[in-house]
Amino acid sequence: MSLHAQHFFTDLLDLPVHERRVIGDACYAVLSPDSPLRLRIEFAQTIREREYGGLRLSILHPDRGALDHAYLSFADHGTFAVRDARLGKQPGHDGYGVVRDWHHDDTSPWIGAAVIPLSDAIQDYLKVWTPEPSPPSSADSARRRPAQLDTDPEPSRGCWLTDADFVTRLHQATPLWLDIVDSVLDDGLPLTQALTGSREHAAQLLEIPPAFGLLIEAEAAARIVHAAGLPAGTLRGASVAQGLSHIATLPVEDQHHLVRAAARGSTIDAPAHLPGQARPAPPPQPSPAHTR
Known about the structure:
This protein is an alpha+beta fold.
């Protein structure tokens, strides 16, 4: 049974956000047009595989990563109270207050679910991170209205390589995209597939023009390969592709570690079973002394 994440996050949850996008089974949202903060909402898995007991909220910053996390329980917010009462389930019973993705039928698990308490809790949580500004004057409102209606990110000034501010925006977008990749890996997508898609979400989530999404994908891929201690070479060369192919054969948990290390800009020791990992050459042995 699908979690119907798109329907749940976009049609059912009432979120006071500027923009939202569903990627896999997670929702990413821009809190306000002038804020660098992003909200990520995921289904929180229980100790059982593909069983979820609530929502996990994260506040993300492009430079400092995850700033805060919160957990909202379905049981505490009465999400499935009607369903469980109809089935005679009580706290402690198997299946109480959870949603499962064990079957392959297309029945939505959110039919009859009460999501208003969840929406209210998320709104209360976001008030901490987006305090209400003082009411602007009529002149301020007139000046700000065009900027609020224009959702296209500001393009570079001339050649993007010589625009220091624009290059800084590109650098800030890369760790945020790596954080998204780390989340999407939980949905069972291959690493190479999880890396793609920045062009579709560049404007809303990364605040860069969509045409530059490929640069973010390429930089993220090179960072992951570098984090594994593999040669990255140039972005147009074969080293990055070969490195990603090697990394994609690793267990998902190892891939998570590499993606997180890449987001931090650090390098970790590659796992011993990494295919193609060259072993260091042994130190040369001294030649035996000759005697007469």
